[in-house]
Amino acid sequence: MHRSELTIDLRALRRNVRRLLDVSEGAELWAVVKADGYGHGAGDVARASLEAGATALCVATVVEGTSLRSAGLREPRIVVLGPTEDEELRSAREARLELAVGSSPIPSGVSVHLKLDTGMGRFGFQRLPDPPENAVGLMSHLATADSDRAFAEEQLAGFRAAVAAYPGITRHVANSAAALGLRASRLDAVRCGVALYGLSPFDRDPAADGLEPVLSWRSRIARAFQLQPGESTGYGRRFVAERPTWIGIVPVGYGDGFRRDLTETDVIVAGCRRRAVGTVSMDSFAVELDEELPVGEPVTLVGEGLLVEEHARVAGTINYEIVCGIDSRPERAQRRLVGA
After folding, report:
1. Which of 148, 254, 280, 313 has the most crowded Cβ, counting Cβ within 10 A?
2. CATH 2.40.37.10 occupies which residues in the chain?
3. What is 215-338's CATH superfamily?
């Protein structure tokens, strides 16, 4: 086995797409595949999303969009959500990308989505200009759809008032949390990212929203040994044995995306949850065992009921950051597709 193996279940992703289409009640679903599909592989998840009923793809940069075109995705709409530099406009035009624009001047010769800042406080017009002929969308972004419904509804009301004078132009504001939890936000299209991958936008079990995790991550025991009382494992001696303790070393570390702040999180060894102990190194971490286990014993880092959301709570972060940080390059991990 490789140092670790990432499995991407495209069947689960397609089921998530269909679930999101069901809750969107007629709105189009635009699949957000930026940051290499949240670490899942942008090209693969883009194709699977389109096969399951998504009608457009969303990326963060022009380069991400042109990369999808180069990967053979010639036909679908691709919307660049982030800001675009002047020197990138020619590439965007040639690749038939659509650009989110939140400040003047509005570029010509390319389809644009005018972005209104209704309270996110990042990019966007403070006041919506009259849409030019090349405007194909009017958009905003909700800051608190996962946490503060009242503010999200305030943003939505402001957006609807601003775009009411421009019927016939596609309106889109909902992210995953809004698509699932704020019915009035769905409008003409919803832009779903995290939910697409079976991750909860609400820091709970994704199954509560009818979603299935797409990614699983496994490794193995590379060495097992027993510490005697007073002996330690790892940098800084953060774990010192108080009694004879079996330790397994897993050849995955923060260089692979198993973060340094995941000490004390659970992994699954031989079908049972075990605790990661000591300092996570760049290329390995230690796990406390109940008994001696053979080299090669499987270790599940994500999957088999062990959710990314659990690791995120231990690390004090969000599930997005955990999956985006996993290194899927062949030098570090083997990547396997299911249902391609």
Report:
1. 280
2. 215-338
3. Lyase, Ornithine Decarboxylase; Chain A, domain 1 (2.40.37.10)
pTM above 0.85? yes
pLDDT in tens, 265-307: 999 999 999 999 999 999 999 999 999 999 999 999 999 999 9
Distance between CA atoms of residues 109 and 105, nearest Å: 13
The residues that are catalytic are: 34, 235
Containing 93, the helix (H) or strand (E) segment is helix 89-94
Mean predicted confidence (pLDDT) in 219-248? 98
What SS3 class is residue 278?
coil
Query: Of all helices (H) and strands (E), which one includes residue 49?
Result: helix 42-52
Residues 6+ apart with CB under 8 A from 111: 98, 99, 134, 135, 136
Query: What residues have CB less than 8 Å from 50, skipping those under 6 apart?
Result: 31, 57, 73, 76
Contacts of range 106-114, beta carbons closer than 8 Å, 24 or more positions apart: 106/132, 106/134, 106/135, 108/132, 108/134, 109/134, 110/134, 111/135, 111/136, 112/136, 112/137, 113/79, 113/137, 113/138, 113/139, 113/170, 113/172, 114/138, 114/139
Strands 56-59 and 28-32: parallel
Phi, psi torsion values for 329, nearest 5 degrees = -65, 145
The end-to-end CA distance of the chain, in Å, is 22
**Residues 5/13, Cβ–Cβ less than 8 Å:** no
Q: 153-188: per-residue pLDDT in tens?
A: 999 999 999 999 999 999 999 999 999 999 999 999
Quote the CA–CA distance of 42 and 195 in Å, as a whole number. Answer: 15
Architecture field, domain 10-201: Alpha-Beta Barrel (3.20)
Residues 6+ apart with CB under 8 A from 130: none
What sign does the dihedral 203-309-311-271 (CA atoms) show?
positive
Name the pairing type of β-strands 112-115 and 135-139. Answer: parallel
